Amino acid sequence: MDTHNDVKLREFLKRGAAKADGELRRDLWPAMARRMEQSERRVPWFDWALLGALTASLAFVPRIIPMLLYHL
Amino acid sequence: MDVQERFARGDRDAFEELFRQFQGEVFRWVMRIVRDRGIAEDLTVESFWKMYRAHARFDPSRAFGAWARRIATNLALDHLRRAKRETALVDEPVDVASRGNPALQREMRAEIAAAFEKLAPKLRVVARLSLIEEVPHREIAEALGISEAATRVRLFRATRILREELKELVESHGHA
Q1: Chain A within 8 Å of B89 (Cβ-Cβ)?
Q2: Which domains does chain B have, with CATH numbers?
Q3: Does B27 touch chain A if contact means CB atoms closer than 8 Å?
Q4: Does B93 have pLDDT greater than 70?
Q5: Contact: B132, A17; criterion CB under 8 Å
Q6: How many DSSP H helices and E strands does chain A contain?
Q7: What is the pTM of this model?
Q8: From the centroid of its chain, how far is CA A31?
Q9: Could you give the CA distance from residue A70 to residue A6 in angstroms, rounded to a whole number?
Q10: What is the distance between the alpha carbons of residues B152 and B171, in angstroms, rounded to a whole number?
């Protein structure tokens, strides 16, 4: 490894690129709470699949409707 | 039962407590990698969301901070892989010698940003954290889930590329 050149590169980067300002200026909890709420409200894909299957059954085999109503 | 144990069992209040305690630390770490305040905030929230969903896999006998940093690093790395354009490496001038010449500063920043952009994301992360943020190799290795030796290898490869890309600029500034 070219140590001399590495030292020069490090020095150059130190002069040319500042460290990131990592101070958090606002509380992120409200954004976190929103993220959690959104996800809790989201209907799982399995429920959509079930609803789709039920709708398809009712459309293609309408005679099951009275049977279904009877059981409800 | 302490807060980490309660979190591991899925307690939302414990999660909020940990979030408030560690949000600054996670944000600071992500900011060092992505160098964009808005993206760092989004990735911080996304990281905690991932932690919340993975609560059952968290071992409460281990440090929450290190676990959080590891998850945040992976998400930041994914972001770098997806992002097309390199974020500027500097927010404000730091070179005292060239402070009087903004054009020179701009050129220097642009060249450095372009050189970093040429690095693969996994090399870029190590280069940023080590060469610019001066984070110890042990901490980088821990956050990336690799050995210190692997971290040194990545840094060596990144340095070689950067040295080549910035050769002329480094030389001209060295003689200035």
Answers
A1: yes
A2: 3-82 (1.10.1740.10), 102-175 (1.10.10.10)
A3: yes
A4: no
A5: yes
A6: 4, 0
A7: 0.79
A8: 13
A9: 81
A10: 25
